[in-house]
């Protein structure tokens, strides 16, 4: 019996009305030790590896299977598929001859242990947490999103070496960099599976049309046409951005001063609010909110609400053009409002300050804030011959980038003021001077 038939039977037994697509069957039947799937968004890849992992665990007693994701939230998401399959099977009785079989499974939040000694463990991106395992199969979901992926690669290879374990990488592309891209362009080692639009008929034309409306042209080429896009004019390299990415749920750090940046939407009726909080020497992104197609009154309300919740030291808002009257209204309720008119020179200061924060690893970005990370990655510096221009590529958006740049700028200027103030008081304080002399 083919492996794909086993998976299909399992899905049936679990009462799931899913018929595997030809690409899913080809992938499951591929006996290669190293497999890689390059796929568009929504293709069904996470589902496929989860279903295969379940079948492998059932048919190979005492096996250890690891599912690895770029964030804790994503590791719960992939495990959701595993849990659905096993909890449905738990309630099923299989009859064979005169015997009736029932699945024995201990299902946790991110692990499942079967009666046959097999286990499936879903882990977030942390090479250290892999070190104790000896795995028969490792699946890496959304592999192109991983930071620190050379360490991850070493840790995975080490994990599988003793058991001749299989490794599967799955992802939509994210630029010509990192382990996933390297594996995809390597000649031999990896057995390649490309899932193109149309290969997963559960996505209807209507779904695609709806998706197309929400995506910019570059996003579409990357996310749906599976293109590894160049970083020709990249203002900040993806590698550097990933060095600032950590897996955490954005929340206010107790005691740290908060700075908010607001970019009023011009192009797609979208306003973005981002806050950073001082965390030692660094700034941690602690709040991200996008307001799409909301009337001005609702936007002002959301900004006031964020101000109440976050209690920031400064709220820096883009007061260019139609931002001016909005800033004026906000100043009535937010005394610590800092309106900033964005000209080509103020923009240069704002985005360069943001860039320095990233290059010096002074910023901490949550792994799940995909739109923010993507906009930062695509943001460009273009040399026009007589000046430098900073912008998103044609058809793309920079509202997250500008909101973050404003928040970082507010932090920077306020910290500079703090230093000036403390220097002033040091000069002025005779008792402190005499204390220092002792
Ligand atoms: N063969 C199939 N037939 C119908 N629906 C499917 C099939 N394979 C996957 N799906 C469904 O498609 C949706 C997207 O799958 P997912 O695995 O999250 O995609 P991806 O990880 O490629 O973005 C899920 O709801 C999943 O259950
Ligand atoms: Mg997925």
Describe this protein's structure:
This protein is of the alpha/beta class and 438 residues long. It has 2 domains: 3-223, Rossmann fold (3-Layer(aba) Sandwich), CATH 3.40.50.300; 238-424, 2-Layer Sandwich (Nucleotidyltransferase, domain 5). 43% of the residues lie in helices and 22% in strands. The chain is built from 16 helices and 19 strands. The strands form 4 sheets. Strands 5-6-7-2-8-9-1-10 form an 8-stranded mixed beta sheet, sandwiched between helices. Strands 11-17-14-13-12-15-16 form a 7-stranded mixed beta sheet, sandwiched between helices. Strands 3-4 form a two-stranded antiparallel sheet. Helix 1 (3-13) packs across helix 2, helix 3 (45-59) packs across helix 4 and helix 13 (344-359) packs across helix 15. It is elongated, with a radius of gyration of 26 Å. The site of magnesium ion (MG) has 3 residues, from helix 3.
